[in-house]
Amino acid sequence: MSTPVHPPKPRPGDKVAIVSPSSGLPGLLPLPYELGLDRLRDEFGLIPVEYPTTRRWGSTPRERAADLNAAFADPEIKAVIASIGGEDQITVLPHLDRELIRAHPKPFFGYSDNTNLLLFLRNLGIVSYHGGSVMVELGRPGALHPRTTDSLRAALLGSGPYELSPSAAVGDVNRPWETPETFASEPLMEPAEGWFWHNADRVVTGTGWGGCLEILAWMLMADREIRPVEEYAGQVLFLETSEEMPGAGEVYRILRNMGERGLLRQFPAVLVARAKSWSFEQPLDAPARAAYRKAQREAVLRALGEYAPETTAVFDVDFGHTDPQLVLPCGGLIRVDGPARRITVTY
């Protein structure tokens, strides 16, 4: 693969596109969305520009793709940011204008279902950014998390190396977005367990590839934006799971099937996010959340042991569906220094 392109970053006063490539939740849940827009203006100095489907629930894949094509084509737009994720972005990809987007590269920020777009852009040779949605990170109740803000600011407005570090306190429990009382105080946080290192005896530097594990499974099933496995040799895999909270068995089976495809062994290092272990459908207490995260780590280790036993792995890294959230570059460099227990990304 050719050297990835790092699109120029916006500056304070620039316009940025706010899009909903997966779902029009801003129209149904305006409180975190409006708060996120205000913080983009006030904290980052950027001018958010909404597109026709940003707040529209039920837009077609073709309509959402039209917004994306327009955002990349507009010379006044300096970055593209997803409002939130969803579950059908894979149906949007066929309607995107590859040559238009390749000719007008811009930084894109999103995660979860936006894994589709991250890997679409990566295959065009464009570095994109896993993290930083408007409704979740920017619309966080009470206040922006300072660690999230620092990482997002570095990725969105800056460039160069950025060292990740484990957070002392993390959050997992949500409150309903429908009620104004939710936004009067910050989410509940609890002491973090730190990062867990496995095979930490080497230094690996490679371009980042990955995203939400459930979305990757769908993309693999549809053979959408997946390159021949040999093209991933030497890269750094990053994986996270969503608020749907897949069980340890499902996590193992997805990774087993990636192993059977010959994919897992291509990556000399893998970063695994701190698993989202609470949802409104599964409101686990603290011991159950810890057990869920432990079972997921063990499932990943089982698959690695069978298909990539030499791979260095770091668990409970603060990215994905986590609070705080650190931004990872998809297609940009990630350095995993096992002996020093350090992770450095290049924005």
What does this structure look like?
GO terms for molecular function: hydrolase activity. This is S66 peptidase family protein. Belongs to the peptidase S66 family. Keywords: Hydrolase. It holds the Pfam family Peptidase_S66. The structure is a single chain. The protein contains 10 helices and 16 strands. With 347 residues, the chain is of the alpha/beta class. The protein has 2 domains: 125 residues, Rossmann fold (3-Layer(aba) Sandwich), CATH 3.40.50.10740; 184 residues, LD-carboxypeptidase A C-terminal domain-like (Glucose Oxidase, domain 1). An 8-stranded mixed β-sheet has the order 6-16-15-10-11-12-13-9. Strands 2-1-3-4-5-14 form a 6-stranded mixed β-sheet, sandwiched between helices. Helix 9 links the parallel strand 11 and strand 12. Helix 9 runs parallel beside helix 10. The mean pLDDT is 97.
Q: Can you give the mean pLDDT?
A: 97
Helix content: 25-40%
CATH topology grouping of the largest domain: Glucose Oxidase, domain 1
Find the structural class using helix and strand composition.
alpha/beta
Number of helices: 10
How many distinct folded domains? 2
Low-confidence stretches: none
Please identify, by name, the CATH architecture of the largest domain: 3-Layer(bba) Sandwich
Q: Care to count the β-strands?
A: 16
Q: What is the CATH level 1 assignment of the largest domain?
A: Alpha Beta
What summary fits the major beta sheet?
Answer: 8 strands, mixed
